[in-house]
Predict the structure.
Amino acid sequence: MSGHSTYVPKTALGKWFEARLPVVRLLHDTAVSYPTPRNLNALWTFGGILAMMLVVQIVTGIVLAMHYAADSTVAFRSVESIMRDVNWGWLIRYLHANGASMFFIAVYVHIFRGLYYGSYKPPREILWILGVIIYLLMMAAAFMGYVLPWGQMSFWGATVITNFFTALPIVGQPIQTLLIGGFSVDNATLNRFFSLHYLLPFLIAGVVVLHVWALHVVGQNNPLGIDVKSDKDTVPFTPYATSKDLMWIVLFMIFYGWFVFYQPNFLGHPDNYIEANPLATPAHIVPEWYFLPFYAILRAIDFNLGPIDSKLGGVLAMFGAIAVLAFLPWLDTSKVRSGRFRPIFKVAFWLFGLNALFLGFLGSVKTDDIIMGFQAVVWAKLSTLYYFLYFLVILPVLGYIEKPKPLPVSINDAILAKSAPSSVH
Ligand code: HEM
């Protein structure tokens, strides 16, 4: 852990325990005395919000599993019985289903915070890559969870997504067969998805431990993006960061509660209240909202590129859109971390954010729908192009051509300059 341990056991029992298992010291150094940059803004509370959401998902998921039946003949009915017959079952289910969406909202804020303030830059590369692994695991967990109620979108979503694998030459077909446990999505698919859906959150929790460990080794970044230089730049984690985290967790819970109690099905799809029917394909198969930008990228590639047909091209583009994140620490060549001091980066970043939202919208419409005079797929191609340009061209080049604004000498200096009466200057 970064910083020097200040923990001193006060009681005889404390000392005895400390000599045998210094877990209290570990907790104290991590969550009490840990030096936190004093200028962190509310965006730095989302790591804590994510940790809280992971616990909520695991606890509600375990209770749901007590009543859920992973058998394709009864799965749909077992979910309806949770909603109607199990005491508080409706609440547990809505907390879990909406919890998945809240988890993704929080993770997107967390990721975009990192993108803006350059939190992926040295020395935080491993911390960032562990984050990308968590994100991938979250996507796998959410996808498999959505299959469990065995509604129409569960079934057809699973069919479409697992079919992606067949685009890969030679290994594709065997991988797909292994994944779904046969030649089409069926009871075997449901069983293995349930098993993996139960497992993945614990795997995520394990990677989160590594993520937070890595964070505590290198220390937190901050809105100025400059390194901590002295004790004046930091405050102890408790009470400062703990109380701020707690306040934002409560605000986030209110937002979450609003969905659970007032709009519990707003983020879902009505077709999932129709039981899975392998003989009736829904008119419009759409994934959950948090996958929509990637779905738009997948569908944008509707042309062959030499030996790569459109299907493989789409799958490669979609996975590439996530994989590129892992290389970001080396793609962004600027020495300055925080976007605050990078005038051109700022414009490219906000465009990237808007573009990501637009991709999400494009993922929700039909490819031949007309949007502002053009087919949605044309827009999807342009947006996909900007998505990749941002990472592969703009960020690498900007580091060389952009002239950043001057950085403050230290975090403490910047804070004093901001709070000093204007007559001093
Ligand atoms: C279950 C999901 C996750 C949990 C529980 C989690 C937890 C945390 C916590 C507690 C912090 C410190 C507080 C903060 O800076 O907000 C943190 C920091 C960080 N996380 Fe995550 N995280 C998760 C997912 C991710 C993902 C998906 C990424 C990126 C792809 C990521 C990248 C980072 C980075 C770069 C930092 C350091 C930020 C800084 O100091 O500026 N995390 N995370």
Remarks:
- Residues 44, 46-48, 50-51, 54, 107, 110-111, 114, 117, 119-120, 124, 127-128, 131-132, 134-135, 204, 208, 211-212, 215, 220-221 surround protoporphyrin IX containing FE (CB under 6 Å).
- The chain has two domains: 28-285, 289-409.
